[in-house]
Amino acid sequence: MSPLLLGVLGYVLAQVVIGILASRKITSEDDYLLAGRTLGPGLATFSLFATWFGAETCINSAGQVYADGLSGGAAEPFAYGVCVLFMGLVFATRLWRKGITTIADLFRQRYSPGVEKIVIFVSVLGSILWAAAQIRAFGQILDHLSDWGVRTAMCAATVAVLAYTVTGGLRADVVTDLIQGIVIILGLGLLVWVAAEHVGGLCAAWAAVPAERLNPFGGTLPVLERIETWLVPIFGSVMAQELISRVLACRSPDVARRAAVSGGGLYLLVGLMPVGLGLLGLQLLPGLDDPEEFLPELARQHLAPVLHVIFIGALVSAILSTVDSTLLAGAGVLAHNLVIPAIRGLTDRGKVLANRIGVMVCGAAALLLALSSDSIHSLIEASSAIGGGGIFVLFVAAQFGGMGGRLTAYATLGAAALTWAVMHWGFSSGWPYTASLVVATIVFLGVAGFEKQRTRPARA
User: Are the C-beta atoms of residues 288 and 66 closer than 8 Å to each other?
Assistant: First the structure.
């Protein structure tokens, strides 16, 4: 076994130990899912940053920019970074004051238990898809360091992540997020410095990048498909339970708002590192067949062994900080909104156990998806677009104004889902989410107006 692989396994073992230590303070479901709602601005900021900064931000964004220039980074890191800022500036304070535990709670309170069930399905499936992407990336790294094979490596990665997510819940996540966030920044910073020195310094490297590769809105995609590239990460992900749980775990609405804004800013700042490396890619590693191999191969060729260990630790940190959060988010919605209400008289201990079992179920499902997929990018795209624009429209309406009830919610969700399916599968359109968002808005306004008219008292 190579020293590098031993270092990675030792790093993962340290996360497991933290999870076990954190589990001693877990006495209720709120402790397990929301860290007792006690997070201060520092831990919350780093937790939001590290949770969002996953495999796609490092491996996929660098690869996409390597292939397509700055326009390849539209989704990662730019649109996903804007998503976190959007949460902080618009929704964080309102969500915190709702006193909810999951996003599904919001839809039950505002619309109906039936609408809640639909959101449970969409939210859990989205979290599992996102976790599958991280597991696949972790498996690729372990396979790169060993002779295990990708499938065996992905199985090992799943067991490792489950070992500390199941035990520690969000209390363990936020502590490991702080450690992992620092390692991410250190590892990427080292690679940027070494790569820039290899091509004669940052100024010389930047001057050598062709102008057409510096246009974030460039590329050959039609206008509507470019809009789709931005809308899916921003509107499709702002409702992710992984993001919402960090906001709800803060100790006050002001901390929630400031942490989301700071976390989004930090995400964009650190996300510029893999983007910069991708822009320099044609100078550093010309002719790669698979863009997703760019970042790992760049580190292997240009970093000294000790620095390579630090960089691999950064990649592993980015993956671990995301996959544990996605599994916990999916399990939280599944257990809190579906399992626990169905079993009357559960004690606090029983509720925590239900959530821990949910983590294991979601982990097994994510592994199966990771084994059956051949692309990190496709899994990430699916996790953000699933559910169409209907849930986003209802999410906004639930916090601003009193329009729309149960009928409006069902009509909006149905119209959005049908539009997305027809555009995606029927017409093979490149902008099904945008279409579903437009249709959902129109249907919501129309049916909400009808509901309001129907319930208006008749004049004497």
Answer: yes
HSE-up (13 A, CA, CB side) for residue 21? 11
CB 217 within 8 A of CB 71: yes
CA distance 99 to 356: 22
Q: Do residues 213 and 321 share a domain?
A: yes
Q: Which residue has the tokens 């169905």?
A: 342
Residue ending a domain, choose from 332, 352, 386: 386
Question: Both 357 and 415 in a single domain?
Answer: no
Residues 363 and 396 in one domain: no
Range of the domain at 26: 3-386
Domains: count for the chain: 2
Task: Quote the distance between the C-alpha of residue 386 and its chain's center.
Answer: 13
What is the spatial distance between Cα 25 and Cα 161, in angstroms, rounded to a whole number?
A: 20
Question: Final residue of a domain: which of 331, 357, 386?
Answer: 386
Residuewise pLDDT in 10s, the chain (460 residues):
677 778 777 877 887 787 788 778 888 999 999 999 999 999 999 999 988 887 667 877 888 889 888 877 777 888 899 999 999 999 999 999 999 999 999 999 999 999 999 999 988 988 888 888 888 877 877 777 777 877 888 888 888 888 878 888 898 888 888 888 888 898 889 898 888 888 787 777 778 788 778 877 766 778 898 898 889 889 988 999 999 999 999 999 999 999 999 999 999 999 999 998 988 888 888 888 888 788 888 888 888 888 887 888 887 887 888 888 899 999 999 999 999 999 988 999 999 999 999 999 999 999 988 888 765 555 555 555 566 789 999 999 999 877 889 999 999 999 999 998 899 888 988 899 999 999 999 999 999 998 888 766 544 4
